[in-house]
Write a structure and sequence with these properties.
Strand order of the largest sheet: 1-3-2
CATH class: Mainly Alpha
Helix content: 55-70%
Number of helices: 6
Strand content: 5-15%
CATH architecture: Orthogonal Bundle
Shape: elongated
CATH topology: Arc Repressor Mutant, subunit A
Order of helices and strands: HHHEHHEEH
Number of strands: 3
Radius of gyration: 20 Å
Structural class: mainly alpha
Number of domains: 1
CATH superfamily: Winged helix-like DNA-binding domain superfamily/Winged helix DNA-binding domain
């Protein structure tokens, strides 16, 4: 028999839903967090972010080589990650080196991969 993953009747807990709605309205960061996850939902940007967990920093040329793109494409993705506070860069002569902004970003990436392995282990 197929498992039903929806409610078969409508039964709303008004106290609970009102409390959650109020909390969501107070926290204006929900849309900003959604932007972070949207940025990481792009496969190339996710590869870049993951690569930057494996190496502390990479220059734009190295990133392009790792993900198999042009330096212009890699640079575009890196700038997007930087604009959202996920990455930072420094210049050294004519080279631009990127790294993840902080340990929170690294933790997000590691947690996502750990979760994926956990889910695969359940199947």
């Amino acid at each position: 028999m197929k498992e039903r993953d929806v409610c078969e009747i409508t039964c709303v807990d008004n106290e609970k839903t009102t409390r959650v709605q109020q909390l969501l309205e107070k926290d204006s960061n929900v849309s900003e967090v959604a932007k972070l996850f949207k940025a990481l939902s792009d496969e190339t940007r996710m590869k870049i972010a993951y690569a930057l967990t494996l190496e502390e920093e990479l220059c734009v040329c190295d990133v392009a080589n790792v993900v198999g793109s042009t330096t212009a494409t890699a640079s575009h993705h890196l700038r997007h990650l930087k604009s959202l506070g996920l990455a930072k860069y420094r210049r050294e002569g004519k080279l631009a080196y990127y790294s993840l902004d902080d340990d929170h970003v690294k933790q997000l990436i590691h947690i996502a991969f750990a979760h994926l392995e956990e889910v695969a282990g359940r199947e």
